[in-house]
Amino acid sequence: MAGKPKLHYVRGRGKMESIRWLLAAAGVEFEEQFIETNEDLEKLRKNGQLLFQQVPMVEIDGMKMVQTRAILNYIAAKHNLYGKDLKERALIDMYVEGTTDLMGMIMSLPFQPPENKEKQTSLIFERATTRYFPVYEKVLKDHGQDFLVGGKFSWADVHLLEAILMVEEMKPDVLSAFPLLQAFKTRVSNIPTIKKFLQPGSQRKPPFDEKYIVQIRKIFNF
Ligand code: IBG
Predict the structure, then answer these.
(1) Helix runs in 144-209, H state only
(2) N or C: which end of the chain has fewer CB within 10 A?
(3) Each residue's pLDDT tens digit in the chain (222 positions)?
(4) Rounded to the nearest whole angstrom, what is the distance from the C-alpha of residue 71 to the centroid of ligand 1?
(5) Where's the GST N-terminal domain (predicted)?
(6) Separation of CA 68 and ligand 1 centre (Å)
(7) Model-level pTM?
(8) Cα separation of 81 and 22, whole Å?
């Protein structure tokens, strides 16, 4: 039997967090090897472990996988969280890319120059409440099912819950105009694997703080 996947990344959310979420949702235990310094990163690069010299990198099923989206696709397909046919996959891909775009705006916020932060924060709330959340609210309303695609829990649900919680950390009442998303949040949060991941002490990471941003800049040299 294959061992546990091993995740190589910094000790923070960044691009690895959605991979942690998806593994946790699938009930897969994983190990983490944290990159704490630029030397740690260089060591991985020199050993030829990183195809494009970048992380996230995940050792899984005998592969050293890079590229976040490829890693997520693999895990979703392997654990039956990627729809039952091509059309369901297409929907899952569209929904996931939407939430990825929203999360990308949030992820880049701590790295913005201070004078941009207020504007970027307003843009995040605007996009969340006028572009992304209305789409998912309407999907749930139109088909009347519990989950976004095919009446079955999928990667799209995991990704949306992660995005909702990220926006709520910044603006707790952001779902006030989205009753079906509120119910969705409760429902998905109570799936046992996810419930466990949301509890303190899990491998879920907190948002980056200012001190950690300094360390990240040193690790990646930017
Ligand atoms: N397309 C790749 C993917 O999606 O996996 C991009 C990966 C990537 O940009 N990795 C960064 C890296 O290794 C670290 S994550 N950079 C070094 C290099 O030489 O390119 C950076 C990041 C953080 C937090 I930290 C939020 C967003 C990005």
Answers:
(1) 155-170, 179-189, 192-197
(2) N
(3) 579 999 999 999 999 999 999 999 999 999 999 999 999 999 999 999 999 999 999 999 999 999 999 999 999 999 999 999 999 999 999 999 999 999 999 999 999 999 999 999 999 999 999 999 999 999 999 999 999 999 999 999 999 999 999 999 999 999 999 999 999 999 999 999 999 999 999 999 999 888 899 999 999 998
(4) 14
(5) 3-83
(6) 9
(7) 0.98
(8) 9
End-to-end alpha-carbon separation of the chain, Å? 40
Report whether residue 212 contacts ligand 1, using a CB cutoff of 6 Å: no
CATH assignment of 86-190, among 2.40.10.10, 1.10.3720.10, 2.60.120.230, 1.20.1050.10: 1.20.1050.10
Confirm or reject: Cβ of 105 under 6 Å from ligand 1.
no
Fold classification of 6-79+198-213 (topology level):
Glutaredoxin (3.40.30)
Question: Is the CB of 68 within 6 Å of ligand 1?
Answer: yes
Distance of CA 47 from the midpoint of ligand 1 (Å): 19
